[in-house]
């Protein structure tokens, strides 16, 4: 076994590998760029080596700098994580030449299966079902349009060396094919250093289900069941689960057997994933094989008990696979929510900045439930514009799918995160969505259920009453504290009343509160009674309650004249007033928000890479106005209506902050 391994990656996956290496008694080496000098993975590793400037193209993607770090530290093996050099054949070959073990598959498997064009050809030859498409290289945009017409719209335009949703576009007509080809090619070049593009039929209403495989260097290979990854946004996975709520045992075995056959065809000798599109009749089609550890691997670990990172290390060390197919079962259900630095209220655009508060729920493991949080950040750390926006992967496990969802709901409500825009509210909303709870999901789920973007959650009456009862009880606690303040004037004793009016989400509840040593009894004006128990104290930002003996968790903060309460994806401003004060509050004028409808505001911190219009131009609805690059993604900003450009306030090359004015219309 190795004494020391180097992790050629950063963030949460580097931290994840370090945890298993520690468990195995193996020392670790971290590498870091200028932007990651104070990163968590650097702190966790036994050694750390600086490898260059912040851009990945000058640090994490430079093979020579990784090789120099190996020489400096004497590492015997390298784990590449995912992304960066994890599927780079040249990197694996350089390690092989230097006598350093690559904790991943052999270079031939990387070349054959990591390249999407080659992998599809091999899959077809092996008898694996494949989606119709053009497997050759595409010369230019005209060629892309021609091929798209031959396949038939809609089509998916993909980077051959792509992954993580980058370099991918769906085209429904010639214009979108032309534009998508150019954007995918540009993104592929900047993200992977390889601008080759291919096109395939886009299967509508599909499920994205993948099979985890595990092999060794002795010809053994097994599959570890499937992961459902259908909740996606912009072709990037957001929520995953294992097993799939859709597959039956027959389909699972067929997909697993094909995946193993494909892996054996290239002598696969590590952890890898074979991805499929599955239609409503459980017909499945090969998409690609990821010759690396997947982001969502924890859900497989939780239902099988297999540490995939450990198995990768053992395989790289030449050990035989100790597991047989008969050893792999399905124990319970696991769900993973990817927490991203993306603002759901701004169409999920990237957000950067400092984490002023980062308090994930406690990691726990019992016979009835597991909470796991894989992360690479810490409170006070910064989310950089140079890398992937992932903050953490929150995972829950329970004996049943329903229980796993309940555990995730509570874990998300308990996750405290401040300082940047993030998708916690959206993740919570999905956990309560009827389609997700039923398992009736496809890769079009977000597009279909949130066609106008995410604008927050409107809580049903039953949930509003829980929040109202909690708020009333909290307000009473705060009032008692205020009533006990010392140094008050004589004859100015403050009395705490029983009758209050709670206003939230344009709804009012008149309540009466009676308290005792164990808690409060909140009675609504229609007679409904809620028993509230909590040890919450004013100033505490996370409030845990028992409402009629059922757990209820909210994030709480003070705002002028009210309480901000966040729960189940809703962000509420709650007022608790005396009845007379509530009457007077209804007479207050409403604040008018400034009109910015005639302006194009920058929706995220980013760089203007192209300006597609000029002053005086008349633009149509949907027409491209400019392109903003942020976190390795190029985002085309389009006109929402027909208008004339009257002013352009930004130019190509400008670096803009959120809400900076780009242009104005009339």
Automatic annotation (TrEMBL):
Span of domain ATP-grasp: 120-317
Alphabetical list of Pfam families matching this protein: Biotin_carb_C, Biotin_carb_N, Biotin_lipoyl, CPSase_L_D2, PCC_BT
Domain Lipoyl-binding per the UniProt entry, residue ranges: 590-666
Domain annotation Biotin carboxylation: ranges: 1-451
Catalytic activity field: propanoyl-CoA + hydrogencarbonate + ATP = (S)-methylmalonyl-CoA + ADP + phosphate + H(+)
This protein's UniProt keywords: ATP-binding, Biotin, Ligase, Lipid degradation, Lipid metabolism, Magnesium, Manganese, Metal-binding, Nucleotide-binding
Superkingdom classification of source: Bacteria
Cofactor(s) essential for the protein: biotin
Signal peptide: none
GO molecular function: ATP binding; metal ion binding; propionyl-CoA carboxylase activity
CDD domains: biotinyl_domain
Any single biological process term in GO: lipid catabolic process
Pathway: Metabolic intermediate metabolism; propanoyl-CoA degradation; succinyl-CoA from propanoyl-CoA: step 1/3
Enzyme class: ligase
Enzyme Commission numbers on file: 6.4.1.3
NCBIfam families, sorted: PRK08591.1
Name of the protein this chain belongs to: propionyl-CoA carboxylase
UniProt organism field: Paramylibacter kogurei
């Amino acid at each position: 076994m190795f004494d020391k391994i180097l992790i050629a990656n950063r963030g949460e996956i580097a931290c994840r590998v370090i945890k298993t290496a520690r468990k195995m008694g193996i020392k670790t080496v971290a590498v870091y760029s200028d932007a990651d000098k104070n990163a968590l993975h650097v702190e966790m590793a036994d050694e750390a080596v600086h490898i260059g400037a912040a851009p990945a193209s000058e640090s994490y993607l430079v093979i020579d700098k990784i090789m120099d770090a190996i020489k400096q530290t004497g590492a015997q093996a390298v784990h590449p994580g995912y992304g960066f050099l994890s599927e780079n054949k040249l990197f694996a070959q350089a390690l092989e030449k230097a006598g350093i073990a690559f904790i991943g598959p052999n270079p031939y498997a990387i070349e054959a299966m990591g390249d999407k064009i080659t992998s599809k050809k091999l899959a077809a030859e092996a008898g694996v079902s494949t989606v119709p498409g053009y497997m050759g290289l595409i010369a230019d945009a005209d060629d892309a349009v021609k091929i798209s017409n031959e396949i038939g719209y809609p089509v998916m335009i993909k980077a051959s060396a792509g992954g993580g949703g980058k370099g991918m576009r769906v085209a429904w007509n010639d214009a979108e094919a032309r534009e998508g080809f150019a954007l995918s090619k540009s993104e592929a070049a900047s993200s992977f250093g390889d601008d080759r593009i291919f096109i395939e039929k886009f299967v509508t209403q599909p499920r994205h289900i993948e099979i985890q495989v595990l092999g060794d260097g002795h010809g053994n290979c097994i599959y570890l069941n499937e992961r459902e990854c259908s909740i996606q946004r912009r072709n990037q996975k957001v929520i995953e689960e294992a097993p799939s709520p859709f597959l039956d045992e027959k389909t699972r075995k067929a997909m697993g057997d094909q995946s193993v056959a494909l892996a054996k065809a290239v002598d696969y000798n590590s952890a890898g994933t074979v991805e499929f599109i599955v239609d409503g009749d459980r017909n499945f089609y090969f998409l690609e094989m990821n010759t690396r550890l997947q982001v969502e691997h924890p859900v497989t670990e939780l239902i099988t008990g297999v540490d995939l990172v450990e198995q990768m290390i053992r395989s790289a060390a030449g050990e035989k696979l100790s597991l047989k197919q008969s050893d792999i079962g399905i124990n319970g259900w696991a769900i993973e929510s990817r927490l991203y630095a993306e603002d759901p209220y701004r169409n999920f655009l990237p957000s950067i900045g400092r984490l002023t508060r980062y308090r994930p729920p406690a990691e726990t493991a019992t016979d009835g439930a597991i909470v796991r949080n894989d992360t690479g950040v810490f409170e006070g750390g910064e989310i950089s514009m140079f890398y992937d926006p992932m903050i953490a992967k929150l995972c829950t496990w329970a004996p049943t799918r329903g229980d796993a969802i309940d555990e995730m709901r509570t874990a998300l409500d308990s996750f405290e995160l401040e300082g940047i825009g993030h998708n916690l509210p959206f993740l919570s909303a999905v956990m309560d969505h009827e389609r997700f709870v039923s398992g009736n999901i496809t890769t079009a789920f977000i597009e279909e259920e949130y066609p106008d973007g995410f604008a927050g959650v409107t809580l049903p009456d039953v949930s509003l009453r829980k929040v109202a009862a909690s708020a009333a009880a909290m307000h009473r606690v705060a009032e008692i504290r205020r009533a006990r303040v010392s140094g008050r004037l004589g004859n100015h004793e403050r009395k705490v009343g029983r009758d209050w009016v709670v206003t939230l989400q344009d709804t009012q509840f008149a309540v009466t509160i009676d308290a005792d040593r164990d808690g409060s009894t909140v009675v609504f004006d229609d007679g409904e009674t809620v028993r509230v128990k909590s040890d919450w104290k004013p100033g505490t930002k996370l409030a845990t309650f028992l409402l009629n003996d059922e757990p209820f968790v909210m994030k709480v903060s003070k705002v002028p004249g009210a309480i901000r309460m966040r729960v189940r994806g809703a962000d509420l401003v709650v007022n608790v007033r005396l009845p007379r004060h509530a009457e007077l509050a209804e007479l207050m004028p409403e604040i008018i928000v400034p009109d910015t409808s005639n302006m194009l505001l920058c929706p995220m911190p980013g760089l203007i890479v192209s300006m597609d219009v000029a002053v005086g131009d008349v633009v149509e609805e949907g027409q491209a106005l400019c392109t903003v690059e942020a976190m390795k993604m190029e985002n085309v900003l389009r006109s929402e209506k027909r208008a004339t450009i009257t002013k352009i306030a930004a130019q190509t090359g400008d670096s803009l902050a959120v809400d900076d004015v780009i242009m104005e219309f009339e």
